[in-house]
Amino acid sequence: GAMVLHLLSARGALDEGKVRVRTLTLPDTYQDHDTPERMYAQAGLDAASIVKVVEATLPAREAAAERGGRLRLA
Asked: Which long-range contacts (CB under 8 A, 24 or more apart) does 46-54 make?
């Protein structure tokens, strides 16, 4: 189930509906040991990387407003 969700969301197959999903997971590769902050950043799991994924996944604010969307980013 989780792998199917991961594959469908990574390919954007769920974007046509009202829900957009992106899974954020550790990469399936070896990571050199480092500080937790650097390891999360390298894996794309730090705050800045998560914000980028959210912004790339959500429709533009103007497009959402035209459709009557109520989600707002602070």
From this structure: 50/24, 53/22, 53/24, 54/22
